[in-house]
Automatic annotation (TrEMBL):
It catalyses: DNA(n) + a 2'-deoxyribonucleoside 5'-triphosphate = DNA(n+1) + diphosphate. Belongs to the DNA polymerase type-Y family. This is DNA polymerase IV. Its EC number is 2.7.7.7. Monomer. Pfam families: IMS, IMS_C, IMS_HHH. It comes from Flammeovirga aprica JL-4. Residues 5-185 form the UmuC domain. Its main location: cytoplasm. GO terms for molecular function: damaged DNA binding; DNA-directed DNA polymerase activity; magnesium ion binding. Keywords: Cytoplasm, DNA damage, DNA repair, DNA replication, DNA-binding, DNA-directed DNA polymerase, Magnesium, Metal-binding, Mutator protein, Nucleotidyltransferase, Transferase.
Amino acid sequence: MSRKIIHIDMDAFFASIEQRDFPHLRGKPVAVGGSRERGVVAAASYEARKFGVRSAMPSSLAYRKCPQIIFTKSRFHVYKAVSEQIRKIFYEYTDLVEPLSLDEAYLDVTENKKGIGSAIQIAEEIRKKISDTLNLTASAGVSYNKFLAKTASDINKPNGIAVILPEEAIEFLEKLQIDRFYGIGSVTAEKMKKLGIFKGSDLKKWPLEHLIDTFGKSGKFYYHIVRGIDNRKVKPSRERKSIGAERTFSKDIADVGTMKKHLNRIAEILWNRITSANKYGKTLTVKVKLHNFESHTKSKTFEKRIINYNFLLQESYHLLDELEPQKFNVRLLGISVSNFSSNDDEQQSSHEQLKLF
């Protein structure tokens, strides 16, 4: 049975909330996060994007691209609260909601709570409710699978909707530029272009075996999506794969002792998040970002779950030492835990784990 999938993507979500809440920012180039001297842009308004400012860009570069840019502090508690309001609107129509982040989600409305036969009508109603109740805009993509819905939502941004019907999908994909395919990143797109793959019709000429030989397991995914095939279901509960905490410093740190003091606080925040979520992992990762934004990580996987804070902290120290931080000026430190185990039969005690060091 053909499904009806909607992908909703909020427009410049963080920056749009700032412009909504602070009228003096409206119509201005806004960057959430960072400052003129340092930091990273978490989100950029469409006015800033016209100058080439993008999320994850060093804020110093954003300032050079757009000297009139206005930097604002992140207010994640506000963004999260607004995201919850948006999801309440989604749940008016279906329980099959798969959030990808605070500002986007898939909805399966094949069978919906209001008995509406048109997924396009549902998408328009949702966009209107978001606009009327929250004074924010959203873009939507509507199609018969997740890949096409996600791809469609980007076509008429901002504040637009695009629909890819089953009978239109193949022609649409054949004409689509390869760097517009969701799931093909910029590095892979450049590799494809060097191989003569510029749009979907070029990709479609490649046999499955050739794609797998060239791109590994992803080759199978590319083979299917260019043919409009994506059988993934909308999963209403996405399992969290990692929990982390990190901190960016106002000044670069060169002293290892100072780094470890900061690591203490980061570990405390992380441990609170782990215990609140009741998710304990076996893999510990420490990340450092250098003054030039180059990132380095070191990970270690243990036989049993990390269930003791002191163990986590001491092992974080060891991983930091292995990164040889004394050689660098560090601007960011982070710790994360992944590889969660649901094995309730692990009879560890905090005392047993402390013995490991």
